[in-house]
Every structure is written in C-alpha cells, then in structure tokens.
Amino acid sequence: MPSSVPPFDAAIVLGASVALDGGPSPALARRVACAIDLAVSGHVAAVLMSGGPVRHPRPEAEVMRDLALAAGLAPERIFVEAASRNTIGNAVGCHPIVAAQGWRRLLLVTDPHHLPRALYTFRRLGLPVSGVAARRPEQSGLEWWLGWGREMLAFPWAMIRVERLRLMSVLAHSAGGAGDHIQPVGVSPPGPGFVDGPGEKSRPAQR
C-alpha cells in the first residue's frame, strides 16, 4: 500500500453530552480532538460523527462536525449520523453510511471506560472496528471506580440488547421478510481489511 494512503478509511466518533448552551461537553470535545489528530496525522481518511439529540435538542453529531470544521478539517472528510441516541443506535445508524462509502477499515473513538462495550456492540452488529481511546484528564480514584462501575452495570444489559437484536434479524431473514427497522444490522464477520488495532481498548456509561 502506498504510504500516501491512510491506513484506515474512517474514524467513527461516538457522541457525548451537549452542554446547555449547545456547545460541546468536555467528553465530546476530547473525542473530536482525538479524531482530528488521527485525520491530520494521516491515520484516517475521513471522520464519521455519530450522535443525535439526546439531552439537548441539538444533535451531538452536529456539534462535533462544527468542532472539526473550526479546527480546519476539510468538509468533504466529515460525515454525520445525527439520529442515534445510544451506543446500539450509533452502530445501526453508522452501518448504511459505512456501506455506502465502501469503508472497510474503521476506527472507533470514544472514552476509555466506554470503549470495550462500544467495540463489542459495533462488531456484533456487523461493523469490524478497531478502538482508540480519547484520553481523559487525570481522574481521582473515586471517579475512576465510578466510571468503570457504571460500565460493569451497563455492559451485561448491552449484551442482552445486542444479541436480541441479532436474533430478531436472523429470524426475520429466515422467515423471508426482514423488517426495514433491523435491516441495517449485519451479522457478517469482519472483512479482509480488518485489523485489530493496538493500544487501549476501553466510554463511560453516559447513555
């Protein structure tokens, strides 16, 4: 592969809370900053911002897009999925965009605590992602334990929901009439372009 070709087609950046004034929360800002670093350094060709209106009427993905544009990232390198409200929704919403662009090599950007659950969700729903953790500022011991504690509670419930969604998709296909609402959910294994990226694979349960 020529050195001028980025090693990953896109970084999928998962949303976080939008501030009351419509600006980015610290979590949102650091995830976008991580993705911009990846794009500027040539590690990814495009960025896909994923997140809808969760706790604020303005979609998280739009706030993230504006941050990337303000940082000088070219508009043609930025894609937006602005309807999802949780991690499963992120995966389902990104699926048709990834397919339409023909992306095969994907990075998933989120906070360290959230990354294991996000990787599990995306991979089980048909998107062969590797993970990059957006580094958090130094945390106190209590904050660290609370963050991982939330994820320990969220992960089993997420597994149940993901596997139920996969089962619904398989049953619908076997019946010969899959519903449109679960069509984007793939159960295919990672494609030949998949590379499991090194480094920390760990996002707080903010949803």
What would you note in describing this structure?
The protein has 207 residues and is α/β, with parallel strands linked by helices. It has one domain (8-182): HUPs (Rossmann fold), CATH 3.40.50.620. The protein is 41% helix and 14% strand. It contains 5 helices and 5 strands, in the order βαβαβαβαβα. The chain has a 5-stranded parallel beta sheet with strand order 3-2-1-4-5, sandwiched between helices. Helix 1 crosses helix 2 and helix 4 packs parallel to helix 5. The longest helix has 34 residues, at 141-174. The radius of gyration is 17 Å and the shape is globular. Residues 178-207 have low confidence and may be disordered. This is DUF218 domain-containing protein. It comes from Magnetospirillum fulvum MGU-K5. Pfam families: DUF218 (PF02698).
Short description:
The chain has 207 residues and is α/β, with parallel strands linked by helices. The chain has helices at residues 26-40, 60-70, 87-101, 115-124, 141-174; strands at residues 8-14, 44-50, 78-81, 106-110, 129-133. Strand 1, helix 1 and strand 2 form a beta-alpha-beta unit.
